[in-house]
Specification:
Blueprint lengths: L12 H10 L5 E5 L2 H9 L4 E4 L13 H12 L5 E4 L5 H9 L4 E3 L2 H32 L21
Parallel strand pairs: 1-2, 2-3, 3-4
Helix pairs in contact: 2-3, 4-5
Length: 161
């Protein structure tokens, strides 16, 4: 489709409204970085948001997704799930994202590195390592279950100042 690049102007909130009417499937918007957009996503009936900067391709000088996450979580106020990707390289990264309110985290590069280097066995091993690291980080923070993870696992600073 001509003119349908990475950030086409036609993908606006009216498009989301049309999509919502067209399908009964869940709609999760990827690329939400601002609390204002998160609030609009809720208002337009989106089923979830994915805090993502698309690997920095959209604006490489912007904030990291982990920095955007708390504001997006606060903006949706528990009404829809908030997922996050970008920069999740080890289990401690996943713990930080979950502590800041992410419903789940996405991994990309560790998966792809493992796949290209060692195939399916590499992916399985990478997932085992990430899981073991997450469990270890959780125990070190005194949070033995996912349900017990909370903001006390991280120290927050204002990245905008």
């Amino acid at each position: 489709m001509k003119g349908f690049g990475m950030n086409p102007a036609s993908l606006d909130w009216a498009f989301v409204d049309k999509l919502r009417k067209f399908t009964k499937m869940k709609i999760v918007l990827k690329g939400i970085e601002a609390p204002e957009d998160a609030k609009l996503a809720v208002e337009h009936g989106v089923d979830g948001v994915l805090v993502s900067n698309h690997g920095g391709r959209a604006m490489e000088t912007g904030r990291a997704t982990i920095e955007d996450l708390p504001e997006v979580v606060d903006a949706v106020n528990g009404r829809i799930p908030v997922f996050v990707d970008g920069g999740i390289r080890r289990g401690s990264d996943a713990l930080k994202a979950l502590a800041l309110g992410a419903t789940a985290v996405g991994i990309g590069r560790p998966y792809l590195w493992a796949l290209t280097s060692f195939g399916q066995a590499g992916v399985e091993r990478a997932l085992e390592i990430l899981t073991a690291e997450l469990r270890l980080a959780m125990r070190q923070c005194g949070m033995p279950t996912l349900a017990r993870i909370n903001k006390s696992a991280v120290i927050l600073h204002d990245s905008r100042s």
